Amino acid sequence: MLKIVLLVFFISLNVFALEISLQGAKEKHQQYSTLHIRDSEKFLCQEFRDDFDAVSKIVCAFSKSPTQKLQKLQNNFFEIGTQAKQETFFLVIKPYQKMKLFPIVFDLKKDDTTFSAEVKLSNHWMIVGYIDEMPLIQKHEFSEAAINFPFTYAEDLLPYVGSLNMKGNPVHLKKVGDVTEYIKIKKYYEEKNYEFTLELINDIMKEYPNSLFRAELLFYKIRVYSKLDENDKLVEAAKEYLREYSSDENVAEVLSLIARAYTKLGINSDADYFFDRLFSEHAGSVHSYWGYIYLAESLELDGSLVRARGLYEKVLSQSDDIDVAAEAAFKLAQNHMANSNAKGAAAQIDKIIKAKPKYFSEIDIYKSMDMMYDLADNTELVQAAGIAKAIFENIEPTEEVYEELARNIGIWLSKTQMKKEALSALNNYLERFKDGMYAEEVQVAKDSLFFDVSDENASLKLETYDKLMQEYQNDSIGNKAIYEKAKLLLQNERFAESLAMERELLSLSQQEYPDVPEVITQAAIGTMKQALSVKECNSVLLISSQYKIELSDEWDDGVYECAMKGADFELAKKMADKNLKSKDLAQRKKWLYRYIKVDFATGNYSNVIEASKELVALIKDDENSEYKDVYRTLFDTYHRLENHQKMIESITELLKAYKDDYRDIERYVAVMAVGSEIKDNNMVIEYGEKIMAIQQSSNSYAQSPFVEFALYQAYSDKENYNRALEVIQSLDVLELDATQRARQKYLLGSVLEKLWRDDASQKAYQEAIDAEPSSAWAELAKSAKEI
Fold first, then answer.
1. Which of the 8 DSSP states describes residue 191?
2. More confident residue, 705 or 513
3. For residue 710, with 0-12 CB atoms within 10 Å meaning exposed, 13-18 middle and 19 or more buried, which class applies?
């Protein structure tokens, strides 16, 4: 039996006479761990079990407390905590897997005789942590009547060697020195003090050449070399690590780092080797996704932006690690920015802002700020301000960029719709930096945000009117302020604000303010026009309905578009009817086309057909007419009316206008279905071939396998078995469900049989059976094989 024991972790703590040590190993490729607890005085350890008879914790009790505080210890199998009650000190061991308690009664180096001993107190207890089966130790049931004979082996006493390392050599270890230093290394690394970390690692490896932490020390050295971009040294250290510690838990990360180092050194063949190992041996691990990111970085350096983008997107879609996802999103944003796709970059940055804003301060903040300014330069101000805010909230006020970031948040948000957040940010800057470098600019932004106009005199007037309205409510002065404010808002084209004062305006005396209805109407007209200008169609439709506004002809286009968007077909048709008799031929075509769209949307198909014929007559000589989409509308109308003959006629005109266009593929399918229904194999073949060609050229197979099955049948009916074979074989490369695959293979076998290719036919029938044995096609295939 092959047994491999790997000593992967050791820690020894001496507190009064108490010694605690943790060891890890493997038996039959399964990891396990042993915890030894020793004291100069005997002490009690006891197992506690849960309702399922599994050990839930082990508690050891000591008569006195330690002189120094014990930190919580843990590995993959145990968590060791402490408690103190009155004069008693407790160790509480909780399992991550399974565990078993054993008293160590005999010292095999000193005692010649052993026997089975059940004790409550001992100087030495051992706890074994394991996953499934207890390693090395077998438990046997004994009869209570059996005699417990002692076992003496003094004459066969063998020399004692002690712990061995991986090479079989004795281990001589100072129990605390390298442990303490190793903990310091982890601390310095986490603090990003990489140079000092490296220096300490080298010192420890020199002082403790046989340290049981050598794997961890070498691993941290590799990590530090990666952070310091010392790729030659990283490669050498990683090779040694992979050679000496090939089964260590950190191999995946080392593979990712050495592969990355080779790409930076320009040795792509070696990089590819380690990437392949990483992706095949550690697929789905966190570090495999880091590997994809590193590979994408190298592809970008080689100019393969599209391939790199694909890898970043893969990581984002598959990894559930927040750090990996944040890095991939940032890299993807950089990729989009390099491809002049600022909106794509902004979308990725938005994900990081929502999921892990600290990311921007955890990486090089100047790299984050480069992205911030790139977004700002491309008017993606919300995301640019988001980066600025994330960095600002996670750096010290003493940082050089602190004030600059505070300024950016407020200034950029003031140029977006996030007015409330902008005002808060601007106030924050002015509170922190009263005499700051950007104080004047920030104050201007705050003022413009508050008044929301550029005319300072008008703003001051409006401020005064508000004060008067507040101080003189239901008074002639307050009423005058209401009227003058509404008029001033109209003059400054702030129509919506003026219209919002409708209730206050209507409360005024009609004798004193006879033109109030006209003010409201002008405010409604202005608001509607502004809404049309920015495509705020809900406002347009609401104002049109509520105030019965009819704008001049120049606004008909916008009103029509909003009416169609809001499904107000009555208003849309009103606009179309108004312009149908235009003497301008171009206008007449446009409104005739729009009239058709309205009637098609409302199901007035007779009107659609009549108007479409008129429009077709007007554009038939113009191959590039912007209204030739009418051919599609006409076909769709006949399709809805189930007029097969007109469908066939109109598809011919559609083909002349658009040739073979992917957008018409469903129309070809409809005609193909008509052909199948009327048993016109020629029609099925003509449009089926078009559909197959379009799908192949676009690499999209939405109509498969329906088209191929129908086309196969048509060719078979015409006894063109060779083409039928080609059609049905084309489905081999497409993804089908089990029943569809069974049908395809059956039809393949059938046509092969007709072509006298019996061996191939039998094979196809068998494939049909194997694809879905319970399907009707499998039954047909079985019958065909038996003939």
1. T
2. 705
3. buried
The DSSP output letter for 407 is: H
717 neighbors 683 (Cβ within 8 angstroms): no
Cis omega before residue 514 (within 30°)?
no
Handedness of CA 491, 493, 495, 496 (dihedral sign): negative
d(CA 251, CA 278) in angstroms, rounded, equals 9
- pLDDT at position 178: 57
Amino acid (1-letter code) at residue 145? A
Amino acid at 749: G
Three-state SS at 113: strand
Q: Is the pLDDT of residue 259 over 80?
A: yes
> Which position has the token pair 């300014």?
373
Cα 65 to Cα 43: distance, rounded to the nearest angstrom: 13
Compute CA distances 306 → 256, 300, 324, 336, whole Å.
22, 8, 20, 10
DSSP state of 70: P
Task: Give dist(CA 412, CA 416) in Å, integer.
Answer: 7
Residue type at 386?
G
Q: In angstroms, how far is CA 106 from the centroid of its own chain?
A: 58
Angle between helices 305-318 and 286-301 (to 10 degrees): 160
One-letter identity of residue 430 = L
The set of residues, in sequence order, having a beta carbon less than 8 Å from that of 132 and lying 6+ positions away, is: 30, 98
What percentage of the chain carries pLDDT values higher than 70? 84
614 SS3 class: helix
Which among 491, 476, 483 is positioned nearest to 514, based on CA atoms? Answer: 483
Average pLDDT over residues 594-601: 78
Q: What pLDDT does 11 receive?
A: 38
CA-wise closest residue to 25 among 162, 181, 136, 169? 136
Look at the block and give the residue holding tokens 């082996």. 153
Determine the Cα–Cα distance for residues 292 and 546; give it in Å rounded to an integer: 58
The amino acid at 56: S
pTM for the model stands at: 0.42
Structure tokens at 408: 């950016």
* Cα distances (Å, whole numbers) of residue 585 to 577, 625, 626: 15, 13, 14
Q: How far is CA 497 from the centre of its chain?
A: 42
- Please give the structure tokens belonging to residue 468: 């008067």
Q: Which of 67, 19, 20 is nearest to 40 (CA)?
A: 19
Helix (H, G, I), strand (E, B) or coil at 520: helix
What is the per-residue pLDDT for 2?
Answer: 33
Tell me if 176 sits within 8 A of 169, measured CB to CB: no
The answer, yes or no, to whether residue 155 has pLDDT greater than 60, is no
CA angle 533, 536, 538 (to 5 degrees): 140
Comparison of pLDDT for 268 and 553, the residue scoring more: 268
Q: Which two tokens stand for residue 87?
A: 């004069």
Residue 545 confidence (pLDDT): 61
pLDDT at residue 411, rounded to an integer: 93
* First-last CA distance in the chain: 56
Residues 6 or more apart whose CB falls under 8 angstroms from that of 725 comprise 748, 751, 752, 755
* pLDDT 10s digits, 375-410: 999 999 999 999 999 999 999 999 999 999 999 999
Q: Catalogue the E-assigned strands of 270-380.
A: none
Cβ atoms 83, 57 nearer than 8 A: no
**Structure tokens of 277?**
């190992």
Least confident segment among 24-38, 439-453, 607-621? 439-453
User: Which tens digit of pLDDT belongs to each residue from 729-757?
Assistant: 999 888 999 999 999 899 998 989 899 99
Mean pLDDT over all residues of the chain?
83
Q: CB of 489 within 8 A of CB of 495? A: yes
Chain length of the chain? 787
Res 560: pLDDT: 72
pLDDT at 153 over 70: no
Measured CA to CA in angstroms, residue 305 lies from 146, 257, 312, 340, 346 at distances of 77, 22, 10, 12, 18
263 and 257 in contact (C-beta within 8 Å)? Answer: no
